[in-house]
Amino acid sequence: MSFERGNRRDFDWQNIDWGRMEDFRPLLFWGVPAMLLALLAYTSVYTVQAESQGVVLRFGKYIKTVDPGLRYKLPFGVDQVSILPVKRQLKQEFGFGTEGALDTLQYSNEQSEERSMVTGDLNAATVEWIIQYRIRDPQLYLFQVRNPGDTLRAISESVMRTVVGDRTVDEVITVGRQEIEAEALVQLQDVVNMYQLGLSIDQVQLKNVNPPVTVQPSFNEVNQAQQEREKMINVANGEYNKVVPRASGEAEQKIQAAEGYALKRVNEAEGDVSRFNAVMTEYLKAPEVTKRRIYIETMRAVVPKLGKKIILDEEASQILPLLQLSTDTQRGQR
């Protein structure tokens, strides 16, 4: 008997050693079920990592979303699981690319086109920025929009061009960076929600924002002049803040000293008036006594200031008895 398959060969069924094949029957009896059980376990058990969620599909139809842990599904390809890192913060870069990035959607190959923009005053600027986002709804992320990562990149570029196009080049490069980031974040999240991408935008951050290379030296000179102007203004304000408070303090001090002197003079005048009125009252009661007391008090205050004086009586015949010729030491010894 002959058997033909491909090339013609002769096969003799009468020469088969059926006794030797009986030795393999136990291996076939236990080996095939064991392989089937291993294949069943391999295709029905899977693990969802701690920072991820699993989306279970049955014949391509969404069934459920499962949390992290050891999970089971129908084997042999009936159920398929897509695991998404919902708690990991993802990033996209525009106008530049970080070397060694594992995510292929993190940057594109059209970096020069991405960073070239036109501002609201029709000036050119090169803008580099990044967005950080998370997967909020795995079901929407997988089934609502085709290629959600590319869609997000297109939306982000459109929003950034809109926001930059509403401002002048000076605002974009200098003072308006934070306002641009905040407005771009709000608009980007609104468009993402409208398209139902299942994403939440955490941050929009501007990186290098510069004028075009051809005009960058002139722009740097203008910026340097503006910085010097601001520096001079700050120095002048510092001197003003140092001199004016000091002059105000000195003026206040002089005003308070004048007010104190005036109060002192008024109090002294009032005291003199009160004393004069008191003396006048006593004088009206006893004029002679009061005049004598005033005379004695006045002489007591004036005479000590005159130094050594000799007062002679008009009836005195000589002055020697009145002179104190001895020194203070001799008088002490006596």
TrEMBL record:
Quaternary structure (record): HflC and HflK may interact to form a multimeric complex.
Keyword Transmembrane helix belongs to the record: yes
Name used for this protein in its record: Protein HflK
Main location class: membrane
Biological source species: Rhodopirellula islandica
Keywords for this protein: Membrane, Transmembrane, Transmembrane helix
Any one of the GO CC terms: membrane
Subcellular location: Membrane
Organism superkingdom: Bacteria
Domain Band: 43-223
Pfam short name (any one): Band_7
Function, in words: HflC and HflK could encode or regulate a protease.
